[in-house]
Structure formats: C-alpha cells, structure tokens
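Checklist before submission:
- one chain only
- standard amino acids only
- sequence pasted in full

Submission:
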Amino acid sequence: MSKVVVVGSYNQDHVWSTDALPAPGATRLGGYASGPGGKGFNQAVAAARAGAATAFVTALGNDDAAATARSLATAEGIDLRDQVHTGLPTGTAGIFVDAGGRNVIVVAPGANAALTAGFVRAQGSAFDGARVVLAQLEVAAEAVQAALDAATAAGALTVLNPAPANAPTTEAMLAATDVLTPNETEFAAMLARHTDRRADPDTLATLPDAELHALCRALAPLATVVVTLGAAGAFVSHGDAQRGDSGPFYRLPAQAVAAVDTTGAGDAFSGALAAALAQAGPGRPFAQALRFASRYAALSTEHTGAALAMPRQADVTGRFGA
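Returned file contents:
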C-alpha cells in the first residue's frame, strides 16, 4: 500500500437531525447522535478505507473524546501522532442536518487550534516515504504550513483542502500546494482574499469552462485546482503539470446516488483523492483518481454521519466498477 499523511483536526461530532433547518429564533424537534469527525480525521479514515497506508497528525485534549480518537484510529489501522494539550478540550462540532441531507455546522476547535508547527516537524518518520500529504484548515495555520513544507522536503505530493471557507490562507500555503480542493464557497473566499477577481459561489458552476479555468489560474498559477461543485460535479484546472490528463481543464459530472446526509462528503472526496493519487502508477491520468474520489464521496452521502460513514474501496468498486 502507498502512504498518505493527513495533518488536521479531530472533532467529536454532535449531530441533530430534523425535517428542516430551524430559522433564527425558531425551535424544531429532531433526533440526536454523537460520533467521531473533524475534517482531518474524516479524511484520514477516508484515505485508509480507500486503500492507502495512512498516518494522522493531530492535537487532542486529555478527555474521553481523545480516548475515543485513539481507539478509533487503532481500529482503522491509522498511525496516530497526537499532540496532547491537557488544558484544552478535544475539538467538538455541532451539526444540524435536514431531511434533504443539507447541513449547517459550528466547530469549537479546542486542542486543534493549538497544534504546533514544531510538533508537526517532529513527525519526520511519518513523512518518510509518504507519497501524498493532505492538510485542511481546522488547525493552526503554522501547523498547516509545516505539513506542506515537510511534504515538499520528503518529495511528496501536497494536497490542501482549504476548508472551512473563513479560515485564513497565505501565499506561502498556495505556493507549497500541488493540488487544491475547494468547494464553491471556499473557492470564492480564496479568490477574494488572494486576487482582484470575484466570483459568486451560487453561480460558479454555470460559468463557461474557459472563464472558470482563468479564475483558477489567477488563484493558484502552478497548482492543479479541483473545484467541487456539489450536484454539478467537479471542475479541474491544471497549472504547469497536466498530471497525465489530455487537456488543461475539464469537468467531471457528479455520480447519481440516493443521498441522505452530505456531512463529510467534501472530506470523503479529499481523502479518497489523496489515496488514489498515492496508489497511482506512473503516467496514470489524474482524471482516474478524480473519478474514484467522486464516486467515493457520492457513496458516503448514502449513510448518516461523518468519519464512520466513509465507504471502503471494495464498496466503491462493487457499486461502480473499476
């Protein structure tokens, strides 16, 4: 198996389901469940279940949620590297899901915000031999940069999932990123932050391909940008390297499934993409890894929850074929 290192957050998720999301000031009845999550852990589980040997670098408190994280990582075969902060709680998230699978999420970072660059750099053995290093933005920005720099030093492909949209990104992060995987909202936020261009996330999917490609090149001139567009699929824009593809930009339609909960779908996509890229042979087109990630993410929405809703590689091939 090929090695993926995920650097990011672990959260204990608290999920409320109801027929419709409540309006401000309103109260609705619904159901409740709790389980593991956090963008980092979701993506680590996705990478592991998609077939890649996976290490996960994170920060935890000294509490029951931290014990749960360790137990689950062991069960998934994930090499957990956790920085313990005894004075902080393990991260938590409140997730509200309606009958159509749509969700709103509030995250309390806790220990995640205290993950240090020094701890990340100290995990040299985790990065040795890594083929892909994947990071998100629910941990301290300095830790994200350290992960990207360690990946570059190790000769690994870097993948940055710039989520959540309101988290800070820097020019140094973009310069160290090989593959960027924003959704519409995240893409529009980064475009406004880093360029003089603007885009409406609600109409992004309707832009002509050449125009969307130009926006991607303005944001990250050298990187491959994969904009996930929900039901409209995904748009790929390559920089200097076309990564085995026949053209510099294209769209991939969404895979039709019976979605019940989209929580964690973006994490499923990024984790599965990292795994597929890590396992790719020489010359394998990027589009093949993208197709697997799209199918993987689609299948994850047919189950409720986040990390534990991630399918396995055999589930994807059994449902959609190779």
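Reviewer check: The first helix runs from residue 39 to 49.
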